[in-house]
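Ticket #4471: structure output looks truncated?

Reporter: J.K.
Steps to reproduce: submitted the chain below (227 residues) through the standard prediction queue, then opened the result file.
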Amino acid sequence: MLSAARQPPAASGVLYLHGFNSGSGSPKAALVRQACAWLGLSCATPQLPHRPAAALALAESRLARLGPRPLVVGSSMGGFLATVMAERHNLAAGLINPAVAPARLVANWVGERFDNAYTGERFAIEAAHLEELEALTPDRVMAERYLLLLGTADETLDPAEAFALYRGARTLLHPQGDHGFAALADHLPAILAHGGHRLAPGWSGSQPLGTAGAGIPGDTNDRNHFG
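Returned output as attached by the reporter:
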């Protein structure tokens, strides 16, 4: 159970950042857009490049269009980028199974090729990915900025690492939740509340991830797709 919510000023918009090798057409991105539309709130869910520095540059360009104080939301590698932006711009952020040490993770993939199911792009992980992630990693995080959503059965990232890094953040542990965090629709009210907006439980856009209209056919959360 979450502790009592802080009373933040209402966010001027929402920026959602998808995970590694995912896309703006992912189920989680679609749910965020639905929730923001329900609230009449400006929202951006950009298709991020696979190179971290380019992804951050694009995300920051979209952030600038969302008013003076947007809420940043990110999943997996997008959670890492959301952290970078929250620390740089003094923003509130909601993180879904965030990548804590992405440079260490990517070090195991140098030379490996990936296919993006959303864009059709094929690319290989290079040493430059690792170098960019290392350069972007914040020295520290201010825990009170964050709402942390962690699946206790994440098969890709160790939730204990995120819990330790963001110690003191308001945290929602989803029992047996996997890396895909399929229960996101149920927890979007908490994420939006972290940005000062009220999305009633049972909002009309609520639907399980992977249902018709929520993503692409055959959407998975294996190693080649991180939400």
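Triage note (M.O.): checked the attachment and the full token line is present. The mean pLDDT is 85.
Status: closed, working as intended.
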